Structure formats: C-alpha cells, structure tokens
Amino acid sequence: MTHETQHEAAEERQSLWLLVLSPSIWAAHFLASYAAAAVWCGAVEDRTSGVDTMRIGIVISGAAALACIGFIGRIGWRKFKLAGGEPPFDKDTAEDRHRFLGAATVLLSALSAVAIVYVCLSLLFVRNCL
Amino acid sequence: MVGRNGTDGQTVNKDTHPLAEAPSPEVLRAQEARLEEAWKPPTGWRYWSEVNNSIVGIWYTALVLFYLLFGGVLALLMRIQLAVPGNTFLNPNLYAQVFTLHGSVMMFLFAIPIFEAVSILFLPQIMGARELPFPRLSAFGFWAFLIGGMFLCGSIFFNVAPSGGWFMYPPLTSRYQPGVGADMWLLGFSFIEVSAIAAAVELIVGVLKCRPPGMRIHLIPLYAWYVLVAGGMVLFAFPPLISGSLLLELERAFDWPFFDATRGGDPLLWQHLFWLFGHPEVYIIFLPSVALVAMIVPTFARTPIAGYKWIVLSAIGTGFLSFGLWVHHMFTTGLPGITLALFSAASQAVAIPTGVQLFCFIATVYVGRLRPSIPMLYVAGGLATFVIGGLTGVMVAVASFNFQAHDTHFVVAHLHSVLIGGTIFPVIAGTYYFFPLLNGKLLSEKLGRIAFWLLFCGFNITFLPMHFTGLRGMARRVYTYPAGMGLEQLNLVSSIGAFILAAGFGVLMWDILRPKGKGSDSPRNPWDAGSLEWLQEMPGKSWGVRSIPEIDSRYPLWDQPNFVRDVDEGRFFMPDAEEGKREMLVTSIIDAKPQQCLRVPGPSFITLISAIFLGGVFIFPTFKMYWSMAVSGVIALGCILYWLWQGSGVIPEKDTKFIGHGVTVPLYVSGPSSVGWWAMMITMLADITAFVSLLFGYFFYWTLHKDFPPASIAGPGVAWPVIGLLASLGSWALTILARRWNRDEKPTAFYAGMGLAVLLAVFGGYALIAGPQIAAMDPKVHVYTALVWLLAIWAVLHIAAGIVMQLYCVARRYAGRMTGKYDIDISNVTLYWHFVTITVAATVAVIAGFPLLR
Amino acid sequence: MTLRYPSIVAALSPAGLEAERIADLFWWMLAGAGLVWLGVMALAIFAAKKRAAGDDTRNGDWIIFGGAAAPAVVLAILLVFGLSMLPDLLAVAPKNALRIHVHGEQWWWRFRYEAPGRLPFETANEIRLPVGEPVEFLLHSTNVIHSFWIPSLGGKIDLMPGRVNRLVLHPTRTGTFQGACAEYCGIGHANMAMQAVVLSKDDFWRWLDATERTAKP
Question: What is the pLDDT of residue B830?
C-alpha cells in the first residue's frame, strides 16, 4: 500500500471506534453510578442515612466523564471542520467521510454529555436510600 | 494471494468508472444465462430447500403476517371479553392464556421477525448485493421460526398456552403454574431468540462487509445504518433474556432456587434480566421500522434526506441509551429513590434522539416538494400516533407519575401508540412502497386509503379511552372489571374500535392477497426513487442485481449518469457467473474496497433438518423428555457439523478471480477480513453477554444478602477451579500454536498440539466440575450453590463445544479440506477459544476468587 | 360485589396528598404534551404544504437543530420538576404513625392493624383510615407478587416475596375509595379488589376501639 493509503487505513480503524466512544463513556458512568447506588443502598442498615458522599462521587465522576467526552468531541470537531467541505458531506471522497464521521462524533458527544447532565440533575433531590 | 488478518485486499482505482462500451449482445445474453443458471430456484418439492434471500424472505414475511393476524385475533377475543363488565366469554384461565399469547406472539413472532424478514428480503438489494453472506443461516432461521412459532401458537388449542403474562414474572411462573405452558414459553421463545441472534449476526456482517465498491460508510443507505444498530442491540439485549429463561426453567424443572426467597433467591432478578432485554427490545422493534420511513420520505419529497448525520446520531444514540432504561419497568418494586432517579434521567434522555429523527423527516419534506401517495399517508398517520405514544412515554418515565400509571391501561395505551404508530404504520407504508419489488405488481391506492382510515380511526377509538380507564383504576391483565366504576362505556368504545381496526387489517390483507392477474403492472422504479433496490426489473430476476455497481453517491439512481443502463449492461463488477456458482462481493468496512469474491451456498435441506432437531432440543424438555432431548441434540450437532463440512471453508479451484475493471480478488479469505470470522466474533459477543448476565446474577445476590456466599455453605474451593483454569489456558495456548503450525505446514506438530489441547480441555472441564462436586454442593439448597453449579456447567459446556471444534479442525486437516494456506476453520476456532478463555477465567475468578475477598 | 363508586377519574380526583401531587404533575404534563403534539403536527403540515423557496436547506437545518435542542431543555425541566416530589412520596412516616401490615393472599387482602399500645387485629379486603394523618403500609407476600393500589390516595407499590416494601399515604378527604391489585397474580387477580374507607379522626378511633375489643385472638 502507498503511504497515503496506509495512513488512511490506520485512520479508518480509529474513527469508527471514536464514533461510539462518547456513548460508551456515558454507559460506563451510568453503570458505575447505578452499581454504586445498588451496592451502597443494599449494604446500609438504615435507609434514611445520607448518601451525600455517593452523590458527590457521581457528580465528580460525571464531570470527569464530561471532560473526556469534550475531548472526543473536539477531535470530532476538527475532523468535521476539515478544510474544503460543504454540507451535506455526501461526496465520494475520503475527506467527506472524515467530515461525516467527525460530525457524527460531535453529535453523539453532545447527546452523551446531555445524558450525563440529566443523571446528575436527577440526583438533586435524593437525600437517602429510601 | 489469499487475504488474511486485516490486509485490505487488492488495490483499486480510487473511482472505478463503468465500462465505456457495453459488451456485445451475445456476451450479454451468455452472461445472463449463466447468472440465471446459478441463481434460479429449484422446482417441485425441492423448492423448499432454497436458501436465496429473495425467496426465504418471502416465506419469512408471509409467516410473520400470519403471526400478526393470529396475535390480532387474540386481541379481538380480549376486547370481546372486556366489552361489558362481568362478561363470561372467556374464563379467567383462558383469558390469561390469551393475553399472554397476544403479547408474546406480537413481540416475539411479529415485531422482531418483521425486521428480520424485511431485511432478509431487501437489505441485499438496498445495498446492490446479490445475497446475504450466510444464506443457509437465514433459511435455518426461517425454519426455526416456523417450528418454534407453531409450537407456541398451537398450545392454546390444547388449553396449555403459557398464562403468566408476556413477561412471565416469578414466583407466579416458577411455583404457581405447574403444567407445560410456562416451560413452552421459556424454551420455545429461547429457540426463537437464538434464531433472532443468528439473523442479527447475518445482518450486521451484511451491512459491514457486503456493500458495493465505493459505498463508503457515509454513503450507506439509512436503512442499513438502522439495521446495523438494531442488529447490534439484538446481540446485547437478547442474551440476558436467554440467561434469565435458563434460570427460570432450571427452577421449574429441577428446583434450583433462583427466584425463591426462602432459599436466598429473589424474584427481582428475573425482572432485571427480562427488562434488560425488554426495553432495548422495543427500540429494536422501532428502529428498523422507522428505517423504512427514512427510505420512503426522500423518495416522495424528491430530495435527499435532510440531516443524514443526525439520523445516524439518532440510531446510535437510541441504541446506547436504550440499555439504560430497563428499571423504569420496575419503579414500583420498592427500589431506592436514587435508582429511580437515575433511570428516570436516562428514560428522559432517550426521547431526544427518538425525536430528532422525526424532525429530520419533517425537514426533508420541508426542503423537498412532497408528492401525495399512499406510503406517505401511512407515514403521516404513524407520525401522529407515535408522537402521542412518545409523549405518554415521557410521562410514564417520570417515576412519580409512574407510581399511578404503572400496570394500568394507561401503559397499555402508551405501548400500543408507540408500537402501532412507530412500527405498524411504517411497516404498512413499507408494504405499499416495496410491494412492486416482490412480484412487479402495485397495490391498490383505493384500498390503501380505505384501510388507512379504518386503521387510523380504529386505533384511536380503541386506545385513546384506555388512558382514562387506566387512571380510573383499571389495572392490566384483568379479565373483567366491576360495573359502576365508570369503566363500562369506555371499554365498550375500545372494543368497538378494535373491530374497526380489525376491519382495516382485513382490507389490507385483501389488498395483499387478492389475485392480481399475470404479468407486472408496475413500471421499473415506479416511485422514481434514488436508492439501489429500485434497480430491480419488474418482475425481478433471480440473480438480483445484474452487475455490482461502483457507488459515488447516496442516491445513485438520481446522481450517477446512465447508472441503470450501466448496471443492466454489465458495465460494472461481476456481471457474470463464469463457474456457475452463486457469488457476491465482500468489501472493507469503512470504504467498501473489494476484498473477496465470496461464493455462497445454494439450496440445501440441511437447514430444515437442523432446525427440526435443534427444535427438538428445546421442545422435548418442555415435556420433561430429557433423553429425547439428548438424542435430538446429538443429531442436531451432526447436522451442523455436516453443514459446516460441506458448505463452508470450501477450498476453491483457483486462488483469485477477476471481477472486472482491473480488479482481482481472492476467493478464499480467513482472519479478520473474512465474513466467517466476523460471524464468529459477533456470535461470541452475544454469548459473552449471556455469560455476563449470569455473573450479574451472582453479584446481584451479593448486594442483596449480608452473607453471600453464605458462611455455612462450603464453596467449590480454590484448587480445583484453578486447576481447571490452568488446563483450559493450556488448551487455548496449544490451539493458538497449532494454528501457527498448520500455517507453517508442520503437520506432526499440528496433530500433536491439537491432540494435547483436546486432552487438556477434557481435563479442564472435569476439574471445573470437580470443585462443586467434591464440596458436595447441592444446587437445590440455596441460590448460591445453584449459581456456582450453573457457572461451572456453563464454562464446561463452552469447553465441550471448543473440544468439538478442535476435533473438527483435526478432521479437516486430515481430509485435506484445511491446509496452511486455507485455514479459516482453525482461524475461527482460535477466535472462539479466546472467548472460552475469558469465560473460564471470569468463572474461576468469581467462584473461587471472590469468596476469598470476604 | 356491588360497589357504589362515582364516575370520576380516580387518580385525578385526589383524596390524598400523594395523589394530589401526582395529579398536579399530570395536568402540567398533559398540557405540555398537548402543546407539543399540536406543534409537531402543525410543523409537519406546514412542511408538507410548503412550496419551493430560497432558504430551504438552512430552515431545514433549524427544524432539526430545534428538534434536538428544545426537547433537551424541556425534558431537563420535566425531569427536575417530576423528581422533586419523589423524596416526599418515598419518605417514612413519623414514628408514632398508624401502621398497617398488608398481606397479599391469593386472591384477597389481609390487613393487620398495629397501632401503638393496642392489640393487633386483622381485616380482610377493607381498610379504614383516619383523615388528615399519615398511615404507613408495610407490604408482605409469601406467595406471588401483588401490587397495592388505591388510586385516589396515591401511587402503587408491589408486594414482593422476600422483601418488605413500604408505602405512606395521607388521606385528605373522607369517603370510600376503590383499590385494586395491580400486578398479575393468577386467575383471581381481577377479583382482588379492596376498599379504603376514610373516616374522620373521631369515627376512626371509635371504630378501632370497637374492633380491637371484639377481635378474636
């Protein structure tokens, strides 16, 4: 393979994973939060005892997840804004393929970020394991 | 060159242009004759051995329609019973069978299979392919669907249908329903779920690997994106139900106390596993249906879809988020508020991608110039209905409101709104739209309109009142209700509406089934659409697409000049079947560069025979006939081995084939470029998900009990499980080495290595059983012992399958059907063994290692 | 059984604090849902009827972007609003509140009153409650899953074998209110109804005293 196609090929494998990385981060954060809640509330004797530590943990890890998703979104944004393209990115070129995958990555990152924000919002009123 | 392990096939000119001139008429006729010869279906009774997607797809769709009508009649029976209070049309026991079968048939035998049937029928054409990559697997799926479905539907005629609701909650179904009904549900639907996973494997591989050259990932038709996502969801959603069904059946048949609270079990685990399946299930149903809309709207708006990337976002986003919703079916079970909050959050979030795609369709209509048509009428009706359902869904997703609405007719109204609006109407739209592809005929506009208004009005008259009856206090799954609660009039209205709805279906069925005369009355591409399935001539030819086109656009029929002519005149790839074989093109995942000319098998009865005996494995234990089950299993295994031996990994007569335009591709590929490797990988992802569901059960009980594993019960110890792990690690390592020795043409080393691998695997399996056996663990005593036994047996069964595969490789080499160059068999078996190793290692870590942490 | 029961929508004619809060939420959601449905339908009809114009693609983009952004905001608000009442709905009752143990049988309700300083007694299929006071239900099942639901008073809660679930209700009106089993529990499921009779405080304690005296041990 020529150097150009080798580079393209290597990029090929990267971008499809990149596409689903943000939703996967949402999933991991969600699963960890649910597991933490289940284990904690399963173990406490008194369900009225506070869960503030856990809530703070979920929000902090949520913030970290948001940072990662932001980073991925930025990578996607740079691909999306690859010079020269005009939406819709439906030309049969490698560049438009990059732009499309970049744009889709940005959108999925935004959705994943909103979903994480929702998770954190949902904890606003929860005080205990009741 | 035989492609292997990720190499990208041969070089291709970046943009292949069609041949400048058509071949001469004699050449064209000869090519068509050869294609016809290779692809034509057998005649007479041998017709039923066909595996071609176009024919299997028709059988599949017809059977799905039958099940739809069967489920619909069951609904009418329910509505007759509920029309007046205190009705005695159906006694409570029969009513329970009716509502259980109605839900189960609609969900398992209609809603999922319609996606599979339509995809089998049309996905290859939508992607300019001649076939799906594993035709015998689709045919097998059909036969399994026929056998399993008839088994289940037939049960009600003997008054033994399952009667625990479509969701089958224990302890009602574990301890309070003796008789075969519940077992039929658990085993019968597991059989069908397995065939659904097989379909998902095929469709995922089809979308990723079997596209026309140049159909890069951003040019794929949206239908294919949706199918890819839905197929992926099936892989992760169905296994938890299969695992859960295994647990429930083990409790029913052998008294293993997974859901028995007196012995450490908990009915809630079933609910988790069921809804881990059940929630993604409804999106698996919805996404492929809305995919039809994504193909229809651009055609009638006469413009490319607006927001293609937004729709891809919707599909993938919905796919992921839908796995975070399942507990919203369990909001009233007493779980902590923090859990309810988390799942309310995710349940709200999923509404965003769900809605976005609808706005994309509206935007497409806005940007274009809409032509009125019957398909668009149904799309409009679907939109109106689905949005109602989506909004009531958002309501019930809020945990606070859910406390009132859960398990009432409000939810019945919601679920039917989204299913009928989001699946039935789009599927009917698709029926009117795609019908000409079946036999070149058009359906009637007049009948379509009549059917639409009957269906639309019938639907609303039936289900809108249920929002009220639910909030008035009418719970679900009630065979009657008391008078004087304000429920009579609304129920009567619903029942009348149900018959109007039924009339609509009647008109629709008449339009589909009425004799339409000979010849075709549809012009080619009757709707002037832009996507590849409309290349088809009316009526279609058995070979599918005349030549495999090079794609430059999302709507090739609109954008690429002389496109139809070029395909018809064989000016693209593979216009011929020189060796008389059925061939299709395999391409790379991202940019669809040609990688392989895949020869697919032709007609064979092995698919039907395998389905019969594998069906026996699920049907006999329903009646506790375990010896028959074992015999059936052995024969099924033999059938599957025969199937693989005869038809897969066939060493071709030459290494490569010229497919036109200066491109030569291999005929045989092994490793990650091959479709078989992907099929194994994807199947094993589903298998690992089922395993993880069992592990989830183990840790679920750990969170539940202060003392888990219970101190008073001896565990399997550490020694034997670790010995088992080491032995199976050895077997795995030797298998990998044997693959290399085979490749390096060192037969002695290969045979010795595989032989030792088999012995180690046998010993490993024995050692894993020895742990619980020697500790005298009794699975009936406590959920802990039952789980340890189950995990050990699961690992051992996987090792056993691995042994069969290792021996298969030895036999293949011995028979000369596998060589160093042609090594797809051991390549796939090694991949399988990677997953076995993960399974065994995780099992040992949990059953031997975890207790040490306490 | 003949039940005289007015033709009102039980869950939306609250007679208890929990039902009131949920009913309020429902009315807001219904109004919002109605507006959204009408809006989407209007947009769709407008899009279908529109004839070709210049700025189409950009407007199309706005439709899509709006269709993503607006729900994201509205749903966030709904989420917060809807969950804000959850802690109240799930809170425990005060220590000295009346406690009633609810046992789900196939197919009837067994209620066991345990008032502090009183002898416990049982009733079947009918409970009497004092208006204006919290009452805590403790839910037990030794057979299958049932669900305890009196829509006029509040939401439902399941009776899960192996667990004891808890529901607190605050009746705010006197009257007789229908209840039902809301989880399929076998062929008698539809007949497993119950009544909640809410009495004034005086009437209630008078009844309790009388029943305690006449109850067989």
Answer: 97
